[in-house]
Amino acid sequence: QVQLVESGGGLVQAGGSLRLSCAASGRTFSSYRMGWFRQAPGKERELIAAINLSGSSTYYADSVKGRFTISRDNTKNTVYLQMDSLKPEDTAVYLCAAARTGSWSRPDYWGQGTQVTVSS
Question: Whole-angstrom Cα distance, residue 65 to residue 47?
Fold first, then answer.
């Protein structure tokens, strides 16, 4: 069992930055690929960033590429999402997820989410 707790969301002006954190319980964090999803009102949940077990490989959706950076610290059981040059369209609930095997269509665990609001 893995529990994921996000933090770091809030209200920021367009062009600003936020850093989200997702702390995982348990001793098997390094066995999970980690991802960040977001869901805006009336829209489907989308995978925006993912990172492999060691942190050596990352994925970004086109909508955030060049502005967001995912990283992980396996000694702290934490994955991060640095968000720069934020835009109003980045407003959403951001959720972290852990996947041991398989695709991101069915992660093994979800966090509860943290709200990010970007004002224009």
Answer: 12
Please report where in the chains the tokens 């060691």 appear, as a residue.
Answer: 54
CB 51 within 8 A of CB 69: no
How far apart CA 77 and CA 55 sit, in angstroms, is: 12
d(C-alpha 46, C-alpha 14), whole Å? 21
| Among 5, 49, 50, 2, CA closest to 23 | 5
C-alpha of 52 from chain center? 13
Query: In what helix (H) or strand (E) does residue 62 lie, and over which residues does it extend?
Result: none
Query: Along the 120 residues of the chain, how does pLDDT read in single tens digits?
Result: 899 999 999 999 999 999 999 999 987 899 999 999 999 999 999 999 999 999 999 999 999 999 999 999 999 999 999 999 999 999 999 999 999 987 898 999 999 999 999 999
CA dihedral 60, 61, 62, 66 (to 10 degrees): -30
Q: What is the DSSP code (8-state) at residue 87? A: -
By the 8 A CB rule, do 17 and 83 touch? yes
